[in-house]
Amino acid sequence: MTTSTAQTEPGLREFLRELAGGGVLLTEPLTGLRGAESDDGDQVAFRTLIQLDGDICLSIHPQALKSPDFAAAYARHNARVHDVLARRKATLRRSIRGASWISGLLGGGLVLASGSGEELTQMLLPSAYADLGSAAVALAGGLLTSRLGRLLTRQLLRA
Amino acid sequence: MSEPHELFADLLNVEVNTIVKQSMTAEKMPSLPFALLDIIAEFAHVLADAGVDLRPYLGPSREECWARIEARSRREDRGQSDDAEAQRDHIAEARATYRAVSGDDAPGDGSRSGASEYDAALFNCLPDLWPAFTGLHAVSEAPADSPCPFAMTRVNNGWDTFERLRIAALLAQPHLAARHQILIARIAGSCSRLKYIIQGLEQRCRRPPRELRAWLRLRTERGPAYATLGALIPKTRNELLGGALRHKRIPHLLRTEDLATVRKIWEVGTELVLVQTAVQIDGDVVTRISETLLSTEMAEVHALVLKAHHENVATGLTHWRALVEVAVELVTKVFGRKAL
Predict the structure, then answer these.
(1) Residue B189's pLDDT is what?
(2) Out of B16, B260, B262, whose CB is closest to A56?
(3) Which of B277, B333, B300 shows the shortest CA–CA distance to A56?
(4) How does A4-29 read in b/e, with b if 16+ C-beta sit within 10 Å?
(5) What is the pLDDT of residues B85-98, one digit of tens each?
(6) Are the beta carbons of B326 and A65 separated by less than 8 Å?
């Protein structure tokens, strides 16, 4: 969970950590609003919590409701919420594409490796068993690609 | 940390709440042990302000509660009642749960002829604590007319504290005025969910560690050691602050969906929800508006609150749609499965 103020795009780790850690929290200080007075300078006018399952909780300070600036301040806060969500969505989608590319490259590498493996089996094994050996290498390569791709993605998301 | 599938759990509905909250800061939710104590303090103060005397509920130790439940379990006339609830043997249920959770037989010979044998792990497997506060040990259910004193000094963040508050709230509910009913129902519901989550956490300590995962973690962890669950729950605030915990890291104890539940309960607390909209994936939309918002006191601001809530719902739906799209993309591109 984080109080978001930064304008830079978060990394996937940070994004998932803040969402998985309870949600993204955005706040707007109360001090900027006319007529909203508070002895405590830490008070906030709006507090929006966005959770990973899409749930949203908006808390409004009663002093903010009395301010003539309420509508403008809320519009500003809401625009920030949209902006932050759009940035995080872009980060997530980019990371997913990245993960799929890595999986693809990993798969390609394994296909090449399995090609070499096939040649090796043909050199080492008698011809009667070479086809069987090639099939086994291809099967093992496919299985390994699938496992490694999933493991990589899981580690990336879990990090 | 969570499994990938948990990251997109509960996308079947979206809930948007708008509340007006006094004295609000940008404070983040603290780590789980402290967040639980915050929630307990807020619930307990609301109950105490409504006139509920919490001392008889929070006073008895775990050992005393166990002894009360065991004494009731030994009574021979327990099974003669027509009431199915009265016939329940909580100790037997705890033993069965212990066996299911840990794979071992519960401690004690189970003959019930000897002295009371309290075991913390077995206590964590109790289905509930009702027998400790009803029947022979019944406490006064009727709340007082004025607020009752309450102090958090000895209150810990274990599952049984939520259970005690739940029982106190449910027993007092029929005697309380209408203005308290919504909050009392919310406290009882939240305590029930938190009890379930924390009890599950305490029970999971009994499971043998998965060796491969433990080995992988040993290879990757750096820096200060993590605090154990036993050092964090059940503990009072003073115990948490006074120990050697400041030199340890607090681990991620909960699954994502459980943490989201705790986060939501901590965030909303006992504040009045003015407007709530729930949208389900099948298209059902339910909006609840508090009577308070329609009262003359809020006549000047209710249009502002409704407009803010309306915009918030739009934001929520946009976010929800984006999450569903991302989940579909994740399934199709990375895991290579066709989305429905």
Answers:
(1) 96
(2) B16
(3) B277
(4) beeeeebebeebbbbbbbbbbbbbbb
(5) 777 889 889 989 98
(6) no
CA A72, CA A74: separation in Å to the nearest integer? Answer: 5
User: What is the pLDDT at residue B207?
Assistant: 54
Query: Which residues does chain B have within 8 Å of residue A57's beta carbon, measured at their own beta carbons?
Result: 16-17, 19, 264, 267-268
Residues of chain B found within 8 Å of residue A149, distances taken between Cβ atoms: 334, 336
Residue B42 has pLDDT above 60, yes or no: yes
Domain spans, chain A: 2-94, 99-158
Q: pLDDT tens-digit profile of B232-260? A: 999 999 999 887 787 888 888 888 788 88
Cβ–Cβ below 8 Å for B14 and A23: no
Is the distance from CB of A55 to CB of B14 less than 8 angstroms?
yes
Task: Provide the pLDDT for residue B294.
Answer: 86
Chain B residue with the nearest C-alpha to that of A50: B316
Q: Which pLDDT does position B190 carry in this prediction?
A: 96
Report whether pLDDT(A8) > 60: no
For A69, nearest residue in chain B (alpha carbons): B304
CA angle at residue B315 from B299 to A23, to 5 degrees?
Answer: 105
Give percent of chain B with pLDDT exceeding 90. Answer: 34
| Residue-level pLDDT at B23 | 80
Residue closest to A77 by CA, chosen among A46, A33, A120: A46
Asked whether the whole model's pTM tops 0.80, one would answer no
Confidence (pLDDT) at B93: 92
CA distance B312 to B13: 15
Task: Examine the pLDDT at B58 and tell me if it is beyond 70.
Answer: yes
Q: How many CB pairs under 8 A join A and B?
A: 164
Q: Which residues of B touch A157 (CB under 8 A)?
A: 4, 7
Q: Select the more confidently predicted residue: B326 or A14.
A: B326
What strand order describes the sheet that includes A24-29?
A2-3, A24-29, A44-50, A56-60, B13-20, B273-280, B285-289
Q: How much is the CA Rg of chain B, to the nearest whole Å?
A: 23
Cα-Cα-Cα-Cα dihedral of B230, B197, A56, A9, to 10°?
40
Tell me how far the alpha carbon of residue B308 is from its chain's centroid.
30
B4 and A154 in contact by Cβ < 8 A?
A: yes
Q: Which residues of B touch A65 (CB under 8 A)?
A: 20, 301, 304-305
| 3-state class (DSSP) for residue A104 | helix
A55 interaction partners in chain B (CB closer than 8 Å)? 14-17, 260, 264, 316
Chain A residue closest to B254 (CA)? A21
Smallest Cα distance from A31 to chain B, Å = 12
